[in-house]
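We modelled the chain as a single entity of 84 amino acids. Its sequence is:
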Amino acid sequence: MIDDLEIVRETLRALAIDRVIPRDILETRLEGTTRLEDLAIDSIGKLAVLNELEARSGVLLDERRLADCATLGDLAACIGRSRG
């Protein structure tokens, strides 16, 4: 089974390939400690990431909780918590 951090990585890569978020992400090492602010994703891109993460993970994500996520690891943990 794919882990939540890998879902985050795959989502970011897919959206970068589709040019929804900066393509620089494709050249970035995406680790649990990677800071979201360092990825330079604008507000429209963040909504696209949220929607795609929900689709890929099968859970509804609380936007307020996501606002507290500083790193990709935090984002993955948020997915895990939403699963219950």
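As a brief sanity check on the tokenised model: The radius of gyration is 11 Å. Residues 9 and 52 are 11 Å apart (CA to CA).
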